Every structure is written in C-alpha cells, then in structure tokens.
TrEMBL record:
Location of the Restriction endonuclease type IV Mrr domain: 255-365
Protein name in UniProt: Restriction endonuclease type IV Mrr domain-containing protein
Organism in which the protein naturally occurs: Streptomyces abyssalis
A biological process term (GO) from this entry: DNA restriction-modification system
Region of interest: Disordered: 133-156
Leader sequence segment: none
Parts forming coiled coils: 215-249
UniProtKB keywords: Coiled coil
Gene Ontology MF, one: DNA binding
InterPro entries associated with the record: Restrct_endonuc-II-like (IPR011335), Restrct_endonuc_IV_Mrr (IPR007560), tRNA_endonuc-like_dom_sf (IPR011856), Type_IV_Methyl-Rstrct_Enzyme (IPR052906)
Length: 378
C-alpha cells in the first residue's frame, strides 16, 4: 500500500482524492459555521490540533492550491455582510475580524489534511484516504455493458494504473529494505522520530524521482475548471441568500432589492444559464467599464454593463453612447449587452439598435429572469 506521506509530495495524488471529504468526519467530527458550508482558520486549527500560526504558514505556502479547493478571503463589504449574517449566529463568542477573514470549505479542509505534516489528526485522515482507495481498488467490479474504449476518448486503462501502483509499492519496499540493511541491528533503540524521518524521506525520494513528474502534468488541465467552480459556488451562495430574503416580493422586486454588486453577479448567472462560458464578474469600474465578461456558446466575445437603478429612473442615450465606445473600442465585443432594472428612453433604444447593442430593459430583464433566453446569446 502507498505510504500516507505520498500525499504530502504529489499534488496530483491529492487531487485524485479531493472529493473524499467524508474522511474528515471518519477521523474526527468537523464543526461548521451556521451557514453549513465553511469553517474559519481557528476552527481548522482546532480540528487538526495545531496552532492558528501553523495553519497561516500553510496558507502562505500553498495559497493557490487551497484557493482552487475552495478557500477564499473575505474583505470589505463582503466581510461585513458575512459577519452580520453568519458570525453573529455563531454559538461561541467569536472574535470579530478587523480587515479580512479566511474561510475554508470541507474540500479545502481536506486539502489542508493532505499538506499538514505535524498533525496526528492530518496523518490519520491521509491514512484513511489511502486505505479507502486501496480497498476500492481491491474490490471486484462488474464491468458495465457498452461500446469499447476509443483512443484518446477516456481515462487511462485501469490495468496500467494498477501496474504503476504495484511498481511504486515495490520500489518503496526496496528502499526501506536498503535503509534497514544499513542498520544491521535493526531499528531497535533508535529514536522514533528518526525512524519516521527515514521512512518519509524514502517515500519522498521514490515519488519525487519517478511518479511526481508524470502525475503533475495532469493537474494543469484541471486548475482553471476548479477556479471557475469555486467562483461560481461563491456567487451562487450570495444569490441564494438575496433571493431567499426577497422571494415573497416577486421576481423583479428581488432584483430591485439587490445592490450593484449583487445585480452584476445575478446577470453573470443568467449568462451562464444560457450557455455562456468563462463568465467573470469584473465590477468596480462604475459607468466607465465592463461589469461582466465572457464568451457565448459559439465563442463570441461577450461584454455586459449592468445598471441597477430604480424603476422610476431611465437609461438615456448618453448611457448607451458611453457603453458603445467602451464595449467596441476597448473590449472588442462581438455581443454587447446593456442590462438595466429601469426602462430605456426612446432615443436610447434607437441608438442601441443602430450600433447593435442589445438593450435589456426592465421588461426584457423580467422575461429573461423568468427563464426566457436572449436571442443574441443563442
């Protein structure tokens, strides 16, 4: 069986078991914040029975990987909102963060378990993960009917994976035997810490020279997908909270109650719902920049500006003119959407039509929000 220290050295091995978050509760119950999704740095430290400083140092060394697995840092208005809606419900007297707060999903906590060396709890989680994987590989499987595999269309043949694992186990056993031969009297009387260090060095040496260079190539193709999923998860949590608070008032009332940032996230979600890809919320540019960027299903460049205004106000031709220059000249947009919670004036609609800008006025926005698709995105 592969030594648990292998997870410390190979990011690809960690990625292969990143979904097995049930391992956390198998070893020790993980307490969550009232939102049922996150834990704080202090809660991570308590779970692994280490200091917060240890967790913070780990975050600095592996921030990118932890972020890919769901860790994020709240600041500014987002932090104030989280303190009000979640930390205020925490049963303990939690010290209120001043400027930022790191949050971990269960997946991110599992990632910490696979990176943290000096924790008995983390070591037990790693051991459980590899034991479960070994049991899964040893269990007989009934082949599913279907067409045979096509070259380049599926995962590597399972026999290749099994052979690779068997070869790795053999190399580790050989290296351990060599270490034992150097100490004819055996390991009796040798400090336990030294024995552990020798074992870990053996595993790291074998994996580092052979398996890691091959496996790390696979992880590159997954990073962008994970980053996008983490971003989508954060936006969906925020949107569910807002819509839940205002659902009694009706669909447009919920949109009217959103602030500018919440409205941008909701429009980004509508774009993704209609098949757009690589959709990101840029925001923070006021009236002079794009709020949402992405690509339509057929690959056209999408640029969106969002205007969360009161229903009694209106979008003027000046608003449209400013957006046209920005979308076409600065962002080279193929599809330009100006989305507003207010109606457009007649001149604004005419100008948008002349310059092939889709004016998503209040009426069209309501239909889009209720499930209709924008033709320009099809």
């Amino acid at each position: 069986m592969v030594h648990e220290g292998a997870l410390l050295e190979s990011q690809t091995l960690r990625a292969s078991v990143a979904e097995r978050t049930e391992a956390l509760d198998k070893v020790k119950l993980l307490s969550l914040l009232p939102d049922g999704l996150h834990v704080t740095t202090r809660m991570v430290a308590d779970y692994f029975e280490v200091t917060e400083r240890t967790v913070n140092r780990l975050m600095q060394r592996h921030r990118e990987e932890l972020t890919e697995n769901g860790m994020r840092t709240l600041r500014g208005s987002e932090l104030e909102l989280f303190k009000r809606d979640t930390l205020s419900l925490f049963p303990e007297s939690y010290p209120q963060p001043r400027s930022n707060l790191a949050l971990f999903t269960r997946r991110a906590v599992l990632n910490v378990a696979m990176l943290l060396r000096d924790s008995d709890v983390a070591r037990r989680v790693r051991t459980y993960l590899l034991d479960a994987e070994q049991t899964g590989r040893a269990a007989p499987r009934t082949p599913r009917p279907g067409p045979g595999p096509r070259a380049g269309s599926g995962p590597v043949d399972e026999s290749v994976v099994r052979s690779l694992i068997a070869w790795l186990d053999e190399r580790i056993a050989q290296s351990v035997a060599e270490q034992h031969a150097r100490h004819p009297s055996g390991f009796q009387g040798v400090d336990e810490t030294l024995v552990r260090r020798l074992a870990e060095e053996t595993v790291r040496g074998v994996i580092g020279r052979t398996i890691v260079p091959l496996l790390n190539q696979a992880i590159e193709s997954q990073r962008e997908v994970r980053r996008q999923l983490a971003e989508n998860e954060a936006e969906m949590i925020q949107l569910r909270r807002v819509l839940r608070e205002h659902e009694a008032a009706g669909s447009m009332a919920a949109l009217d109650a959103m602030n500018g940032r919440e409205f941008e996230r909701h429009v980004a979600w509508l774009c993704r719902r209609d098949g757009c890809a690589q959709v990101t919320v840029t925001g923070g540019h006021g009236d002079a920049g794009a709020d949402v960027l992405g690509y339509t299903a057929d690959g056209r460049r999408l640029v969106v500006q969002c205007k969360a205004r009161t229903p009694s106000s209106s979008i003027t031709s000046g608003d449209v003119q400013g957006f046209i220059g920005m979308a076409r000249l600065e962002y080279k947009a193929d599809v330009a959407l100006l989305v507003a919670t207010a109606p457009f004036t007649r001149d604004a609609l005419l100008m948008a039509a002349r310059h092939e800008v889709t004016a998503v006025h209040r009426g069209l926005l309501e239909a889009w929000n209720n499930g209709a698709k924008l033709r320009v995105l099809e």
